[in-house]
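anyone else get weird line breaks when pasting these?? whatever heres mine. first is seq + tokens for prot A
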Amino acid sequence: MSSSLRRGALAASAIAFSIASLAACGAGNDSQTLQIKPDNAATTVGDIKIQNAVIVTQPDPKATGPAVVSARLFNQGATDQTLQSVTIPGTSDTVKLTPAKGQKLTVPAHGSLMLGGPGNASAEIPGGRGSVQDGNAQKVTFTFSKTGAVSLNAFVVPATSYFDKWGPSQIPSPAATGSPAPGATASGSAKPGKHDTANPSATASDTATTGAGTDVTPSDSASQSAAGH
């Protein structure tokens, strides 16, 4: 084989290897590319602009707890508007809206309202993965007092990686098992006339932590994390 043909064969092999490497990089559930945040949904209707809309499910794929809708709602008009409802078309689930403590579900004129995250208003989907599925682009409709219905398709993602702080506040506790603690042994026989009595133990209560920072969105968190790489 001439030297020119050998050089051509080597170049072709190098290109093929590069393509194979890139393809392998995108394969598998543990691929680093899965850590890249998707482009979150946004739309504008009249005075209302919705940005960074995303549905966040439980971090554990086997969990049956609620999911939440997270989004930044902007009002570009001169009149305050109220967020009246959030619905998931195609499901019978009713989204539960809760204002931030001491506030209302108002999108102020030339201002914004944040849904999701510590200390902010929340929009909870009680059915969780029974109503929405991870990986889907789910239609969500926001209804406002003046503008009316505003719909878009929001990605459904678990509360992991960039989205952990925007996930549901209700995280189901692991189910208790009846197996004995390590090192515990069963006695061979019970002594007549004596009865073992159980010592009541206090049940643990889940506590929710709250934090400041209502001006941050899931996209902001993702951008800050990506900047460190």
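and prot B, same format (seq, then tokens)
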Amino acid sequence: MIFWVILFIILVSVKPKEISITYTLVHEFITVSFFALITYINYFYLFPQYIANKSLFWHIISIAAAAAVLTPIKSFILYFIYYSYPDQKNYILENQIFFFLSFFFMGIGSTIYYIMNEWLKGQRKTSELQNKTLQSELRFLKSQINPHFLFNTLNNLYALTLKKSDDAPEIVLKLSEMMRYMLYECNERRVPLSKEVNYIKNYLELEKLRQAKKFDIRFHMEGEIENQKIAPLMFIPFLENSFKHGLNSQLKDGFVDIKLKVMDESVEVDIENSKAPTLPSPSGKKSGGIGLVNVRRRLALLYPDSYDLNIRSNPNTYHVNLKLKLD
């Protein structure tokens, strides 16, 4: 509607001054009305036919036919209005081709607009569908992480209760804090880095409590974690992997060394752990059931072109380095 009003104002403003304002307004109102008419004929009838038949040639012919029908109708109306203006009547009679071409190109222009509009709608629908698909996949991937860790911890808790260990109540408390975080705070695309770090600390405390043998577990953090956000539970598969392979009964001096460094626009996590020489590499596709296949997919979805993951397996150690670009 706004387009037609603007077009009407432009046409009135360029009309010769010798024509009275009344005739000018009527003339341009008729002109704009016919432009709108062929546009809506195209929108409601001709363009849907084009979409159905996919024939551009016949669509152009249809627009030309509509323009050919509207041209004499507009000319007759204007001729009647300008009956007292011989010069204008002659102008109308001499410009039939101009009227036809103006209708024709208005129809072609509206077709181009409709095609672009349909393309944009299709792009939006595709984008929305892809986003929904990605969100569904992310929810599925994250849902694999939560019960995976829970089952491991409950198994450890069960073993401690059988031994009547004094550590069991503390494990329950730590586990409840972690479950609260997973169930109620990890539903967002990004969570505060400070909460993720607190989750990691609780995880490490649980591991320290459950280890029958005292291993060397170190965690060092550098940089400011406040006011930074990160995808939830991104580091947990690597931590699980390091404890699974790094603190093995075959090892006399097992260790897990975790370093977290926060810079201006990125966060870097470096995890190194001991390994028994006979253990397979954890960089395979079946680490703990979900392993690195899961986390690599989450990284690809949540940090496309914004992460760097390096994994090295040496005879006696595993080393994982992950860099993420912060939002």
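btw re prot B: Residues 284-289 have pLDDT under 50 and may be disordered. The radius of gyration is 36 Å.
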